[in-house]
User: Which sequence fits this backbone?
């Protein structure tokens, strides 16, 4: 009653609190000096009332003096509620909580947007890999069926093979096949020069992954550079590497049970550098070799890349490729080339055509078979 809080729900801003005793005056003066404006609110609850003393201050500016002042003001409110009698029975059975508001959850890192331009249909020369990815996507999209049979979809996928064979593209295509967000973890996000920093970074990444509520493909690209071989050396460097690898193992052990929305994909050009215990079944259940394409695969890749460019750029008044372009012949001329190499050949030929038109001031003819042959030869020359 003395605080005016025994009536209907009310909010009273007290600046400063009206406490007349010496202790109250001291707390009042300290709060005023710190710029605090406490807000006292009261609301009915089942079986009683809830009285709240609240104030706000910038987190970076909070000092122990702020905390002491607020604790003192709160105790003054409790004293007022107790009354002046020798036995303040009015407080028996009550609960008192002094806390700061919970910090908001850190913002989720922005996921790469889903891109219709990267799909499994665009992957050439890897029919078995594409078929396996489609199976994984089906298992991901039908959790009720999986649960009915007690079936467990893969938790992790390891893709290994030479550079430029499309491992990262496959991970993005899998995300689109599932209808999932795509989150790529790069080496600088984990490795830290300070002792214990890398371990904390891995824990934070998996802590965030456990909170994802949308289907997400979590890609650890160049996995060997993030998690080096967990060796048996006794030096400080080996111990640090083993600690990082150990944290990664622990986090992978329970990820799928704690958040089935996440599937982990790791890629590496050097699988021999990754400790076998890191990628054992149960952590990475699927291990797929992504080799350089053979001749038939290169022909399929060339045809698909050209079709993609035609769909994107050709118009009624603009023709991009000539009718003499023969993917099979180009594939025969390009042994050893990867999908990335073929894309580079096309980029160079497109650039040469665009520069010729830009400097000549007149339209040039479409890309011909001879242009592409020269592009392959130029790539081999460097």
Assistant:
């Amino acid at each position: 009653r003395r605080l005016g809080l025994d009536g209907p729900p009310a909010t009273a801003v007290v600046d400063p609190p009206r406490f007349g005793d010496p202790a109250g005056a001291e707390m009042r003066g300290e709060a005023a000096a710190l710029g605090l404006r406490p807000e006292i609110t009261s609301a009915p609850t089942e079986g009683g009332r809830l009285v709240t003393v609240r104030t706000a201050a910038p987190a970076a500016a909070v000092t122990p003096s702020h905390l002491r002042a607020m604790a003192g003001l709160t105790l003054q409110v409790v004293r007022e509620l107790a009354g002046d009698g020798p036995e303040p029975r009015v407080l028996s059975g009550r609960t008192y909580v002094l806390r700061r508001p919970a910090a908001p959850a850190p913002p989720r890192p922005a996921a790469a947007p889903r891109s219709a331009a990267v799909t499994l249909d665009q992957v050439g020369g890897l029919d078995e890999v594409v078929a396996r990815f489609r199976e994984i996507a089906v298992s991901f999209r039908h959790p009720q069926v999986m649960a009915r049979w007690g079936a467990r979809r893969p938790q992790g996928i390891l893709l290994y093979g030479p550079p430029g064979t499309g491992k990262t593209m496959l991970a993005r295509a899998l995300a689109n096949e599932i209808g999932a967000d795509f989150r790529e973890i790069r080496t600088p996000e984990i490795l830290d020069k300070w002792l214990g920093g890398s371990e904390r970074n891995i824990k934070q990444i998996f802590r965030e992954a456990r909170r994802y509520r949308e289907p997400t493909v979590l890609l650890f690209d160049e996995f060997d550079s993030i998690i080096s071989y967990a060796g048996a050396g006794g030096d400080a460097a080996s111990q640090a590497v083993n600690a990082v690898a150990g944290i990664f193992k622990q986090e992978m052990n329970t990820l799928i049970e704690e958040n089935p929305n996440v599937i982990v994909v790791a890629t590496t050009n050097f699988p021999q550098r990754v400790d076998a215990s890191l990628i054992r079944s149960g952590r990475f259940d699927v291990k797929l070799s992504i080799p350089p394409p053979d001749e038939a695969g290169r022909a399929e890749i060339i045809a698909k890349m050209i079709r993609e460019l035609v769909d994107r750029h050709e118009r009624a008044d603009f023709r991009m490729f000539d009718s003499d372009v023969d993917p099979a012949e180009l594939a025969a001329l390009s042994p050893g080339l990867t999908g990335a190499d073929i894309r580079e050949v096309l980029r160079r030929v497109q650039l040469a055509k665009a520069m010729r038109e830009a400097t000549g001031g007149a339209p040039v003819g479409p890309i011909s078979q001879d242009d592409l042959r020269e592009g392959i030869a130029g790539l081999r020359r460097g």
Notes: DSSP finds twelve helices and eight strands in the chain. The two ends are 88 Å apart (CA to CA). Residues 10-17, 103-116, 229-237 have pLDDT under 50 and may be disordered.
